[in-house]
Amino acid sequence: MSRHNDAAKRLFSVLYEDALAFACLKAVQEVGPDDAYIAAGFVRNRYWDQLYDNNKAILAADIDVIYFDPDDATHNVEHAFEAALSSAVPDQQWQVRNQARMHEYGGHSPFKDLNDALMHWPEVATAIGVRMTNDDALEYIAPFGLDDLYDHVLRITPLVKEKDPSAFEKRLINKGWRKRWPQLRVIRA
């Protein structure tokens, strides 16, 4: 089995075994935007938390749902999806963002697709999304691959390193990741 397949298999196993993760993925598949993924800390944290016995109960502050629709990039659509997801899985903080408009926050050219948008995220292991298909299989999108997630590495993405490396440093400190995951390897290069 290739390293790529092993990493995906392990990630999917962690998500399938987590009842809340499964319910959230199912909700996005049923009521979320077309071709939407749950991304960022929801995916990364669950994978890395399972490496530490004492972190199993730590939940993400919010559930980031991403999709790409250049034809309707209004906030109203995102809020409607958040409301639908909150009804499907209550007591969670849903954050739905159409990546077709997120370029505005970094002064970038419009993103071409989800893959392009994820390449602008701060860390390689954060730029991963997972979704459930109609047959309850899982698939992922990860423009940088899964190696950093699998290897427990926090690495700055090339674009952020070039444009705003201080954002990476601020997130590292403010999020408390080294305390949460003491064996985390941080790579700034």
Shape: globular
| SS summary, helix count | 9
Taken together, the total number of domains comes to 1
> What number is the mean pLDDT?
91
CATH C-level class? Alpha Beta
How big is the Rg?
16 Å
Key words describing this protein structure:
single chain, 189 residues, alpha/beta, Beta Polymerase, domain 2, 5-stranded mixed beta sheet, two-stranded parallel sheet, 9 helices, 43% helix
Layout of helices and strands:
Elements: H1 3-17, H2 19-31, E1 37-39, H3 41-49, E2 63-67, H4 75-88, E3 94-98, H5 114-118, E4 129-132, E5 138-141, H6 147-151, E6 153-155, H7 158-163, H8 165-175, H9 177-180, E7 185-187
Parallel strand pairs: 2-3, 6-7
Antiparallel strand pairs: 1-2, 1-4, 4-5
Overview of the structural elements:
- There is one protein chain.
- This protein is α/β, with parallel strands linked by helices.
- The protein has a single domain, classed as Beta Polymerase, domain 2.
- The chain has 9 helices and 7 strands, in the order ααβαβαβαββαβαααβ.
- The protein has helices spanning 3-17, 19-31, 41-49, 75-88, 114-118, 147-151, 158-163, 165-175, 177-180, and strands at residues 37-39, 63-67, 94-98, 129-132, 138-141, 153-155, 185-187.
- The strands form 2 sheets. The chain has a 5-stranded mixed sheet. Strands 6-7 form a two-stranded parallel sheet.
- α4 (75-88) links the parallel β2 and β3.
- α2 crosses α4 (75-88).
- The longest helix has 15 residues, at 3-17.
- It is globular and about 40 Å long.
- The mean pLDDT is 91.
